Structures are given as structure tokens and as C-alpha cells.
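The instructor's notes for this session suggest beginning with a concrete chain rather than abstract definitions. Hand out the sequence below and ask the class to guess, before any prediction is shown, which regions might be ordered.
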Amino acid sequence: MHRRSFIKNSSIIACGAPILNSIGLNDFAATFDNNNEEVVEIMVGKIKCTIFRDHVHTYTASRYFSNADAQELKPALEKYKITPDKIPSPFIAMLLQYGNKKILIDTGMGYLENPLVVNGNAIKFKGRLHKLMASQKFNAADINDVIITHFHPDHIGGIYSEANQLLFPNARFHMHEDEWSYWHSSKADNQSPVFKYIIEKNISPLKDGNLNLIKGDFTEILPGLTAVKADGHTPRQIAIIMHSQKDHLLYISDAFLHPLHIERLDWQTNYDLDHAKAKATRIKLLDLAHKEDMLVNAFHFDFPGLGRAEKRNNSWMWNYTNA
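After discussion, reveal the predicted structure:
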């Protein structure tokens, strides 16, 4: 039995990620979000999964599908009822409950009362995760573990408050050691100053706390939760397999930003650091989901981002699943 929660929402003006060093701060656009659905609950075996819609941002086809042929792109966008200048993209977080555990996957973009000013540009961060958690009677202090899939601002902005207070004070934080190493090395010097600021504020201080750096591929983080390397979007993004009883769910994070990246594996996005590795990861995850008949949850697909990838001969199709 699946249950949906509907929460009255007011319009939000905010900015979002992902962004890369090739994308200027002016690419942050205001988004008015009038969709009332913000919290969805599903069961994966005995794991109760609560999906929160932290924010919705709007992107453009020129950045989402940067190498797509114009004649092929037009009908593809029409299929999903989107236009080249307006592709809605939710940001989410997922809270898992089983046994006496409460585990959060990604922390949203965070909330700053005052805009972040970088190089003279004021950027608003108005994520709703913590308000939504409170509305569902979840206390951040009760979170046992936080899993970070990668270090982009829309996934890590909610770790610390504006006053630099750790918002999940009793949690152990899990992230891949290679993701940590890249962003704390000279290899990341050419990345966006926004990235650097958010990582220095929300990730770097964790080195002195309860931190677990994941190693390798197909690594068990916690019982029922396995980290899978998903390179390309960032150097060591991870996907998460959840398995309980006979049910499996694959949380793909940003390996795919839109269903068209499933259906058109050669279409690239400006938000991936390495296009070849990103494509290889997509094939890896699709094969995995198909082989194990996994439900899939995608961070940036239409909320709540649940569906299945169907293999048809040598191609793939995405089918949304009603929660």
C-alpha cells in the first residue's frame, strides 16, 4: 500500500544547481513552483521511503541536451510536453526508515535567509527540505545516517545552517572517498566559485566529525543499502541500491537528468564533467535495473521521480510509476 501526502505550497523564488565552471552565475534563474505535491511515501519491502521535493528549478534544452540534433530534439521535447526554454527539474531528498534507523539520502540545496553573494552576484538558496521534514514530524536530530551521492550544491546545501550549525548533529555521514579527494585537490581548482564555497561550508568541516569515506564499487554502506559507482557527472558520484525482501529500488541521483537521457544515450548535458564516463554509467545502471527488475528513483525527473526503464531491442524507454 502506497500513500501520498499533499502539503499546501506557496510560490518559491530560488536558484539551483547543478552548475559547472562553464556556466556563469547568470544562468541561475528564478522559478515559480505551483505544484502542490511535495512529499510521497512508498514501501520497498520493509523500508519506508519518504521522498521530499526540496525545490524545482527550470533549465534549458541547450544545456540539458547540448549535442542533440534540432530536428530530433523537437518531437522528443513535445513527447514530454516541455519546451526548449523551460524544462522543470525537481531537487529531492529521500528519508529511509527501517528497524530503528532513519537514513537521509542527500540534503537538498539548503536555506539561506540572506542571498549568497559571489563575484558581486546575489544568489538565493531557499530549499524546503527541513520545513517538509518538520511537517511530517521528522526531527533532524533523529537522523542516524546521511548518505551524500555527490558534492553538487543541490545535494549538500542542507548539511549546515546559515549560522554554520550542523543540522544533523547525531548522524554519520557517508560519501565516496574519490569524490572527497577530487574536490579537496587542485584538480577542482577550475570549478565554479559557488561549488567551492558550498563544499567548504558544508562538506569540508565533516572531516573532524563522524565521517565514513566509501571505497570501491558495489560497497555495502548499511544493511540493505549498497553504493554503486556512477562516474561522469562528477568524478565519483554514487547511486544507491535499496533492497528489502524481494523489492529493489535504484536511486540514480544525477546519472540521468531527464528521461530523454535514458532514451537517447548519446545526448550529452553540460552538467556532466566527463561525457564518455557518464554514458558508460548510464548503460551500467540501466542494465543493473533491468536485470534485477528494480524500481528507479531519479533526482531530477518529474516528482517524485519514480519509474522503470524498459528495454526494447537495443534501446530504452522510461515509464513513470504512480506512487
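Then share the key points. The chain has eight helices and 17 strands. The chain has a mean pLDDT of 89.
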